């Protein structure tokens, strides 16, 4: 039983990171209807920036914040320069898939070109100690990562529900043309959506690398698949769904890896794949998503 | 109306002329294709031209699914890998002959394609891309998991194919001609398929499922069978890849292969017959042409080129060619042709 | 032509290579209601889309003394031109109140709440449904919402694209009465595009008749009502 709770905590800790990347995916999907295959590598790039800032002597917390700000600008620039010229994602899904895959390849290669292919040790953000709660020992890292996720979610909620900017972004997500007629600069809102997603991804990347204590160019692709599973489970248009989905995917994969000996640590990803497949077959809109109306 | 018929009349001899041009081009290209193994050294044949042919066949299959039928797969590398492992395991461990394994690989990947195609009926557009991407990511992990059968990351060596005495060819040349033969057959079959009623149904489904269904197209059947045929072509290409390079390991069939095949389709020109061949040529040779002084930089440029292509010429290489020839024809058209007619034609075409 | 608020001359435009508008001249004066009549496909919607920057157009469009061509719809809202599109364009996922707040997106003053109360008074149905998703309301209610939302920007000119489309006759009548009242109370100018000529001419000062992308007749509302051809084609008697 103790092992079960240990695994539950580890699952939630890993799931919090998946949830964070899934949030970024949802932000972009909601605003621009793009499933961003480059989200993982965007986070990779941001995390290397964080690492670089840390190496230059910034405290790790500040390094993350600065990297998030830079990522915001980068994400917004990518929307303007690369995504918008391709046109409507729902009309030409293949072109948008290829563009984000091109971005994935380019960003991954860019990181290797700038920082070299070798892995780096990434600083621990939280103390390595553990705390005993009801007989279960929980690491400060697990608590810290979950707390960061909770704060992130509250801030995003306030942004979208309580501010004029958030309302405008939601309006654009619902209907571009009508939003423009109301006086909303639609283009700037799309850039904001991508920028915000990149910043959220930067934070997730730092948590991920801190969790693993290493940073290298190969690990973020798997993170993307887990985040896909999380977003699919929660519903691609629901931020709350992304978080719940992320936590569930984290717990399910850790449990599957732990209890199903046949799977083991290496095949945990198979569990994530099955989550994606089963959800899309049984409930394509996910747990919290709105039912898609068929476009004719 | 009368102006349109008049301007079309003198076009008849031009049609005949374009037929002659087509025949000449086919003969020249055919001759070049046959001459390639005589001219290039062995490492180019085995390392590049034979690889191009296998990629072209796989991309041909993927194009049928993604280009013509609109089902985006970022996972065809997995079917390619299943074909490759079928041949490798049967030849190396069970003493099968290569040709027999091709049949086995084709049947197996066709069935697998049907199985993946069934859930794909309920999953559309970007979601299908996501599922197939996850499938391709999981595939090498499964291969590694069953390493006692597959050889895992260590890989598996397969007995080489020798050119028969009577041919008087080197091994690499012989393999080239065998692969080329398969490719020509595959391209002709797909061309005939696409130009038939079946092909028109595939395109109708891609452009508007509901309308296609109203016209009496059996959506589920077409989509699932297309997935099967598409997977089969990728699988056979995988079998043939082992004929060329008798070695398999888990890393060869990772997500990058799937991405490469999809890139070949769109770079050549989605929903064109010959596009995959051009695309396969491009993905194999582009790294050669990129600056060698900074080897780390070339994948950056590759990704960048891909993005640029989708923005500038979303129709790929063949789409671009068509645009250019269309533009040239309009420029070269004699001034006597009636401008309002061509204007409405354009309007109709763009509608 | 006569219009110190909006002055349009030689307006052409369309979709891709298809030219719909073939040189329009018209105008709207401050506080005036002007109606453009025309059959389906005459180019009424295209005219409004060209005015507010939704499609590429050529010619001259002067709004409040400066050129409006080549500007985006959101930029034009900022200088006082609001557009209630065909099909209403309410953001169906958002609530009534959120839609109204969006209407004031370009404003920075502190009277947004007061304006909202004012329009809730004019359209009490909206007040009842303020927390309901806009998409769950009837067509007539959504049309009211779209108009109230446009007015939230405090525009000088509102472009209305077939406000009667898809509404029951009684609802249409009520809608036009409200529009006339709003025009009298606030002095907001309106350019209304309509097939339903009777009601539109009742509230309008002047009108134009559009056929196949060209203006074929123009005059005061009374002149148009008296015109034989207009009566036959658009008034039905």
Describe the structure.
The complex is a heterotrimer of chains A (296), B (351) and C (237). Chain A is 72% helix and 4% strand. Chain A is built from eleven helices and four strands. Chain A has a two-stranded antiparallel ribbon. Chain A has a two-stranded antiparallel ribbon with strand order 2-3. The mean pLDDT of chain A is 91. Chain B has helices spanning 2-8, 11-39, 42-68, 76-94, 98-120, 126-145, 147-150, 171-195, 197-207, 209-214, 219-244, 255-268, 275-289, 298-312, 316-332, 339-350; strands spanning 156-157, 247-248. The longest helix of chain B is centred in the N-terminal third of the chain and has 29 residues, at 11-39. Chain B starts with a helix and ends with a helix. Helices cover 38% and strands 27% of the residues of chain C. A six-stranded mixed beta sheet of chain C has the order 6-7-8-3-9-10, with helices on both faces. A four-stranded antiparallel beta sheet of chain C has the order 2-1-4-5, covered by helices on one side. In chain C, α3 runs parallel beside α6. The relative contact order of chain C is 0.18. Classes of the chains: A mainly alpha (296), B mainly alpha (351), C alpha/beta (237).
List the keywords.
B: 351 residues, two-stranded antiparallel sheet, 16 helices, 2 strands, 1% strand, globular, disordered C terminus, C: alpha/beta, 10 strands, 38% helix
List the helices and strands and how they pair.
The complex is a heterotrimer of chains A (296), B (351) and C (237).
Chain A: H1 2-32, H2 39-55, H3 60-83, H4 93-115, E1 120-121, E2 130-133, E3 136-139, H5 140-162, H6 164-174, H7 176-182, H8 186-212, E4 214-215, H9 220-234, H10 239-259, H11 268-282
Antiparallel strand pairs in A: 1-4, 2-3
Helix pairs in contact in A: 1-5, 1-8, 1-9, 1-10, 2-3, 2-4, 2-8, 2-9, 3-8, 5-6, 6-7, 6-8, 9-10, 9-11, 10-11
Chain B: H1 2-8, H2 11-39, H3 42-68, H4 76-94, H5 98-120, H6 126-145, H7 147-150, E1 156-157, H8 171-195, H9 197-207, H10 209-214, H11 219-244, E2 247-248, H12 255-268, H13 275-289, H14 298-312, H15 316-332, H16 339-350
Antiparallel strand pairs in B: 1-2
Chain C: E1 6-15, E2 18-28, E3 33-38, H1 44-51, E4 57-63, E5 66-67, H2 73-78, E6 81-84, H3 96-103, H4 112-122, H5 124-128, H6 139-152, E7 157-161, H7 169-186, E8 189-194, H8 197-203, E9 206-211, E10 214-220, H9 221-226, H10 228-235
Parallel strand pairs in C: 3-8, 3-9, 6-7, 7-8
Antiparallel strand pairs in C: 1-2, 1-4, 4-5, 9-10
Helix pairs in contact in C: 3-6
């Amino acid at each position: 039983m103790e092992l079960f709770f240990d695994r539950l905590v580890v699952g939630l800790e890993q799931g919090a990171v998946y949830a964070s990347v899934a949030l970024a995916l949802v932000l972009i999907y909601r605003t621009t209807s793009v499933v961003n295959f480059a989200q993982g590598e965007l986070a990779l790039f941001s995390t290397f920036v964080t690492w670089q800032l840390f190496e230059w002597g910034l405290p790790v917390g500040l390094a993350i914040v600065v990297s998030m700000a830079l990522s915001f600008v980068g994400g917004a620039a990518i929307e303007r320069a690369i995504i918008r010229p391709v046109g409507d994602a729902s009309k030409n899904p293949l072109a948008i898939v290829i563009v984000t895959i091109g971005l994935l390849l380019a960003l991954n290669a860019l990181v290797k070109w700038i920082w070299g292919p070798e892995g780096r040790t990434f600083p621990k953000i939280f103390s390595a100690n553990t705390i005993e709660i009801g007989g279960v020992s929980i690491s400060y890292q697990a608590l810290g990562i979950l707390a960061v996720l909770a704060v992130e979610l509250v801030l995003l909620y306030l942004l979208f529900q309580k501010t004029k900017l958030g309302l405008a972004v939601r309006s654009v997500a619902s209907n571009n043309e009508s939003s423009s007629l109301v006086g909303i600069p639609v283009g700037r809102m799309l850039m904001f959506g991508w920028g915000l997603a990149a910043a959220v991804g930067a934070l997730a990347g730092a948590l991920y690398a801190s969790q693993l204590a290493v940073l290298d160019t190969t690990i973020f692709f798997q993170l993307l698949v887990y985040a896909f599973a999380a977003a699919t489970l929660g519903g691609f248009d629901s931020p709350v769904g992304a978080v719940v989905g992320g936590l569930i995917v984290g717990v399910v994969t850790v449990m599957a890896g732990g209890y199903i000996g046949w799977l083991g640590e290496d095949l945990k990803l198979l569990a994530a794949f099955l989550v994606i497949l089963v959800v899309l077959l049984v409930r394509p809109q996910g747990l919290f998503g709105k039912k898609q109306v068929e476009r004719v | 109306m009368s102006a349109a018929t008049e301007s079309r009349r003198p076009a008849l001899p031009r049609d005949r002329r374009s037929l002659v041009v087509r025949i000449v081009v086919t003969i020249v290209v055919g001759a070049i294709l046959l001459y390639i193994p005589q001219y290039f050294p062995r490492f180019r044949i085995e390392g590049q031209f034979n690889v191009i042919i296998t990629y072209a066949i796989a991309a041909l299959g993927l194009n049928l699914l993604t280009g013509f039928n609109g089902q985006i797969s970022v996972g065809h590398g997995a079917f390619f890998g299943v074909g490759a492992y079928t041949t490798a395991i049967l030849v190396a461990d069970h003493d099968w002959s290569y040709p027999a394994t091709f049949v086995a690989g084709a049947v197996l990947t066709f069935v697998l394609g049907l199985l993946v195609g069934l859930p794909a009926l309920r999953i559309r557009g970007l979601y299908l891309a996501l599922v197939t991407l996850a499938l391709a990511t999981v595939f090498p992990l499964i291969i590694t998991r069953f390493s006692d059968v597959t050889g895992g990351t260590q890989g598996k060596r397969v007995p080489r194919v020798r050119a028969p005495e009577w041919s008087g060819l080197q091994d690499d040349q012989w393999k080239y001609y065998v692969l080329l033969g398969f490719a020509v057959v595959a391209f002709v079959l797909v061309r005939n398929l696409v130009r038939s009623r079946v092909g028109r149904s595939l395109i109708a489904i891609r452009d508007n499922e509901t309308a296609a269904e109203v016209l009496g197209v059996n959506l589920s059947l077409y989509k699932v069978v297309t997935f099967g045929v598409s997977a089969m072509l990728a699988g056979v290409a995988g079998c043939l890849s082992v004929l060329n390079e008798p070695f398999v390991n888990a890393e060869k069939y990772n997500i990058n292969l799937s991405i490469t095949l999809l890139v070949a389709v769109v770079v050549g020109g989605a929903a064109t017959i010959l596009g995959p061949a051009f695309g396969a040529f491009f993905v194999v040779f582009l790294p050669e042409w990129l600056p060698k002084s900074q080897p780390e930089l070339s994948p950056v440029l590759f990704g960048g080129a891909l993005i640029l292509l989708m923005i500038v010429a979303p129709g790929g290489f063949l789409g671009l060619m068509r645009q250019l020839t269309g533009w040239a024809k309009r420029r070269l058209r004699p001034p006597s042709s009636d401008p309002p007619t061509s204007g409405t034609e354009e309007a109709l075409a763009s509608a | 032509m006569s219009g110190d608020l909006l002055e349009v001359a030689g307006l052409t435009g369309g979709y891709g290579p298809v030219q719909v508008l073939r040189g329009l001249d018209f105008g709207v004066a401050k506080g005036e209601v002007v109606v453009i009549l025309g059959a389906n496909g005459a180019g009424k919607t295209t005219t409004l889309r060209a005015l507010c920057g939704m499609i590429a157009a050529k010619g001259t469009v002067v709004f409040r003394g400066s050129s409006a061509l080549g500007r985006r719809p959101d930029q034009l809202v900022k200088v006082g031109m609001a557009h209630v599109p065909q099909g209403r364009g309410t953001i169906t996922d958002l609530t009534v109140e959120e839609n109204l707040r969006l209407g004031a997106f370009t404003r920075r003053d502190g009277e947004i709440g007061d304006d909202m109360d004012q329009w809730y008074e004019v359209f009490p149905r909206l007040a009842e449904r303020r927390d309901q998703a806009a998409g769950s309301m009837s067509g007539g209610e959504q049309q009211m919402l779209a108009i109230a939302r446009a007015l939230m920007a405090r525009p000088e000119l509102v472009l209305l694209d077939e406000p009667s489309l898809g509404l029951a006759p009684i609802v249409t009548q009520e809608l036009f009465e409200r529009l006339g009242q709003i025009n009298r109370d606030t002095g907001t100018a309106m350019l209304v595009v309509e097939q339903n000529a009777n009601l539109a001419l009742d509230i309008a000062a002047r009108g134009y008749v559009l056929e196949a992308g060209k203006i074929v007749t123009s005059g005061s509302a009374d002149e148009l009502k008296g015109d034989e051809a207009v009566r036959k084609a658009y008034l039905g008697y």
